[in-house]
């Protein structure tokens, strides 16, 4: 039936691959789907998608993903009608023109010298120019139609993954239409409250180190450079250590931090010094605990008295996350104003990130989390990574032997053309310097990818050894 829709694919099925359809390569199947869907939906550009499966199941999996994206785009067009809806998916910094934001228009028309509203940042910005990029050259254009990509000049706040519309009123109107559809189709209204386009999913950083300028005179220049790089790369996090005053650079891996270090030197002309690379461990509790605290304080002429009761419980059976899930008792949620809910949730989230025993200020909830009144045994969590190695048959045994020494757990070994793909999980602490070792073992022919999978609790012996190393006792 699929061959009836495309003549080129029909020739492959009837000719070269008539005996075994599973031999059809992934590239040919991808091109087939692109041609068929392009003819059906008349789209100029389809979103990129990643092939994660092989064999005959590729057709079904790929069709499901693409059709799901197309359905979402069609719903967006219905909700926004002829109003602008675009996605900012990349940011570059030009020394002369400032930040250049790559946008793709999904509905409506984008014109220069027009004001646009950023839903993610809740702010209005004015775009001065529209440029069509051709390699290292840009041509100014008068407008941008749906399905096209261009560079915008003048957007000071927009970052990677932000949704851009014509105005706040347009976003509210689209949300109202989506809400009506949600009630008619049994869809969740919380999912369509703010109609954001799917941006980039950014996992938590797993590596961090200190970064210092050559002198305090260069500190402001370094802060500006890091601010620009964070806007270009959402996976890069920068924070200030409140105890030492040092700038902490958080990234997704050794190579990621090395590239950031090189870009600061090459693009901004700042020589920086990196501290030793550290792993971002997490803490959790092993059992539930409760605490009650009373705040009685006079502010001006008014006396404020608040009693708060807090219970913390470990989350089991779910992927470990930095942000806690906050629930209110039924008697509290009715009486607590929405603006105070934001302060409570802020306090709990910040205290969980900083850890137990930190000095976290005067907010009652912060005092509750950081006080010793919540007595629960703590357990340190080690980042567990999904590892995928693409290696030739000749070097497969060497790569597997090295993986076993790193406490890796092999999930499966797939075939991809003439290579083997090893899928495994491995503790991040064992992956320091792995890129150099793998290149040596395979004569530079193998490649690998790492992705955060979850956090694994250390046993008491490993936890004690880690704490002793951190305190300098070992």
3D architecture notes:
One of its GO terms (cellular component) is mitochondrion. It comes from Sula dactylatra (Masked booby). InterPro entries: EF-G-like_DII, EFG_II, EFG_III, EFG_III/V, EFG_V, EFG_V-like, Ribosomal_Su5_D2-typ_SF, Transl_B-barrel_sf. One of its GO terms (biological process) is ribosome disassembly. GO terms for molecular function: GTP binding; GTPase activity. By secondary structure, the chain is an alpha+beta fold. The protein folds into five domains: 77 residues, no CATH class; 91 residues, Translation factors (Elongation Factor Tu (Ef-tu), domain 3, Beta Barrel), CATH 2.40.30; 74 residues, Alpha-Beta Plaits (2-Layer Sandwich); 90 residues, no CATH class; 82 residues, Alpha-Beta Plaits, CATH 3.30.70.240. 32% of the residues lie in helices and 29% in strands. The chain contains twelve helices and 20 strands. Strands 4-3-8-1-2-7-5-6 form an eight-stranded antiparallel sheet. Strands 9, 10, 11, 12 and 13 form a five-stranded antiparallel sheet that branches. Strands 14, 17, 18, 19 and 20 form a five-stranded antiparallel sheet that branches. Helix 8 packs parallel to helix 9. It is globular and about 85 Å long.
């Amino acid at each position: 039936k699929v061959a009836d829709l495309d003549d080129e694919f029909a020739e492959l099925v009837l000719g070269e691959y008539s005996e075994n359809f599973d031999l059809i390569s992934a590239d040919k199947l991808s091109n087939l789907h692109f041609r068929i869907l392009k003819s059906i939906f008349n789209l100029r550009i389809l979103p990129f998608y990643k092939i994660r499966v092989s064999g005959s199941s590729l057709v079904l999996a790929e069709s499901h993903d693409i059709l799901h994206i197309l359905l979402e785009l069609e719903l967006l067009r219905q909700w926004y009608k002829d109003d602008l809806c675009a996605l900012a998916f990349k940011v570059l910094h030009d020394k002369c023109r400032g930040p250049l934001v790559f946008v793709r228009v999904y509905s409506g028309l984008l014109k220069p010298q027009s004001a646009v509203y950023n839903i993610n940042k809740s702010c209005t910005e004015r775009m001065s120019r529209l440029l069509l990029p051709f390699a290292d050259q840009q041509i100014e254009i008068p407008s941008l139609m749906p399905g096209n990509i261009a560079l915008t000049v003048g957007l000071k706040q927009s970052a990677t993954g932000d949704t851009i519309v014509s105005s706040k009123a347009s976003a509210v109107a689209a949300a109202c239409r989506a809400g009506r559809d949600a009630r008619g189709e049994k869809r969740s209204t919380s999912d369509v409250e703010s109609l954001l386009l799917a941006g980039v999913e950014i996992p938590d950083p797993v590596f961090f180190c200190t970064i210092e300028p050559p002198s305090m005179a260069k500190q402001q220049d370094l802060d500006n450079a890091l601010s620009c790089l964070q806007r270009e790369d959402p996976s890069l996090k920068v924070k200030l250590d409140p105890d030492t005053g040092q700038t902490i650079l958080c990234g997704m891996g050794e190579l990621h931090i090395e590239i950031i270090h090189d870009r600061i030197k090459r693009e901004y002309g700042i020589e920086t010094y990196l501290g030793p690379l550290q792993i971002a461990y997490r803490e959790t509790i092993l059992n539930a605990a409760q605490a009650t605290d009373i705040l009685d304080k006079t502010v001006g002429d008014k006396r404020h008295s608040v009693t708060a009761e807090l219970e913390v419980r470990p989350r089991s059976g779910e992927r470990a996350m930095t942000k806690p899930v906050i629930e209110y008792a039924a008697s509290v949620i009715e009486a607590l104003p929405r603006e105070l809910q934001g302060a409570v949730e802020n306090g709990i989230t910040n205290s969980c990130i900083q850890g137990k025993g930190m000095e976290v200020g005067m907010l009652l909830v912060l005092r509750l989390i950081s006080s010793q009144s919540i007595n629960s045994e703590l357990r340190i969590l080690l980042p567990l990574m999904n590892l995928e190695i693409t290696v030739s048959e000749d070097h497969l045994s060497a790569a597997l032997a090295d993986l076993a020494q790193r406490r890796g757990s092999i999930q499966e070994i797939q075939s991809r053309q003439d290579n083997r793909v090893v899928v495994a999980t491995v503790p991040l602490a064992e992956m320091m310097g792995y890129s150099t070792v793998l290149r040596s073992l395979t004569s530079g022919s193998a490649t690998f990818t790492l992705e955060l999978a979850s956090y694994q609790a250390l046993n008491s012996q490993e936890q004690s050894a880690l704490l002793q190393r951190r305190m300098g006792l070992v």
